[in-house]
Amino acid sequence: MTVIPVALGDRSYDIVIEDGVLARAGDHLAPIARGRRMVIVADANVPMHLATLRESLSAAGVASEAIEIPAGEGSKSWATLERLLDSLLALGVERGDHIVALGGGVIGDLVGFAAAILKRGCGFVQVPTTLLAQVDSSVGGKTGINTRAGKNLVGAFHQPALVLIDPTTLDTLPPREVRAGYAEVVKYGLIDDPDFFAWCETNGSALLAGDPEARAHAIARSVTAKARIVGADERETTGTRALLNLGHTFGHALEAEAGFDGSLLHGEGVAAGMALAFAYSAEQGLCSAADADRVAAHLRDARLPDGLAAAGISASGETLVAHMLHDKKREGGTLPFLLARGIGATYLDRSVDLKQVAAFLNRCPR
User: Fold this and answer.
1) What is the pLDDT of residues 267-312, one digit of tens each?
2) 72, exposed or middle or buried, with CB in 10 Å at 0-12, 13-18, 19+?
């Protein structure tokens, strides 16, 4: 078992990583429940994990209720949030209760936001079952839903009380979902850890094939990096946490253009976005073309999109920039971009000319 702390003062919590921990979750959750029942909100794709979790809670003397949410990005919506809140209120959830989010990043974001606003703040626990959620979205307290204007524009910072990561849940995940989550793993190497990116180049194929040792190493390394960054800049006020958005400004625009309909998964959008960020950086003379090519090559090797064509996006640069203008990070009329001076040397640039970005995107193959 690996335990990684997220140091946030009185909001600190642990991330527990262990094969099979889902079947022993009751031992970890009983002290949090404090004799109260727990309500589990689960992705419709994980009935087997829900059964395991409820059996574990029962064995630990914790009563539970379950609410099922449809799978997919479409559930991060006002309509689903309203239905979830009504269901939680109908069950009599109190401020001192903890809601358990069981599933992927969609469930974690939705349930975390519901917990943040229900009765002005309930506790919640993250039990992520996808690689993307395990290495990224379950840690750090960012919660929210999508709107017509864009992704994650409505939400709150609300830290979980605990994160339980069972890597064996990935055995039931479709390969495409594993690859999408792997994009977020690669991201940590590209941000500030070139040695980890080199590890990904050597070991990524083993991880994607389900090798337990490679998988455990990647999850622990990624979570440790995110915990460190979140602990230093919880609410993205100093710019440190913004580094975690590498690939997301481009990627969210691609997702918005795709309509959040599942044709482009979030991790796939991030992968294409990271390749575009490095290609744009190389074009601007910030990093070498060799570094940009190396990033794109590894993403292709992982069967992830490395640009607009591979992501199935044919929209103009102007259209994609228009999507970017809805980005929640926009401030004072400017949009910060994560660019790179090399692999492991990402930085925040607040002076990017959006006309140049549109022109760059127009030159990209479709």
Assistant:
1) 999 999 999 999 999 999 999 999 999 999 999 999 999 999 999 9
2) middle
Question: Is-catalytic flag, 283?
Answer: no
Whether residue 248 lies in the annotated active site = yes
Known catalytic membership, residue 18: no
Catalytic residue among 236, 255, 257, 268: 236
DSSP-derived 3-state class of residue 314: coil
204 touches 302 (CB < 8 A): yes
In terms of DSSP bridges, do strands 13-17 and 2-6 run parallel, antiparallel, or are they unpaired? antiparallel
Tell how far CA 100 is from the center of its chain: 17
Strand partners, 334: 331
Residue 266: active-site member: yes
Amino acid identity at 123: G
245 catalytic? Reply is: yes
Dihedral, CA of residue 221, residue 344, residue 187 and residue 305, to nearest 10:
-140
Question: Active-site residue among 215, 226, 298, 323?
Answer: 226
Positive or negative CA dihedral for 189, 174, 168, 108? positive
Model pTM?
Answer: 0.94
User: Known catalytic residue: 298?
Assistant: no
Amino acid identity of residue 9, one-letter, is G
Using alpha carbons, list the distances in angstroms from residue 16 to 108, 173, 244. 16, 20, 21
The answer to whether residue 98 is catalytic is no
Distance CA 329, CA 153 (A): 9
pLDDT digits (tens, 9 = 90+) for 241-250: 999 999 999 9
Q: What is the DSSP letter of 239?
A: S
**Does the annotation mark 226 as catalytic?**
yes
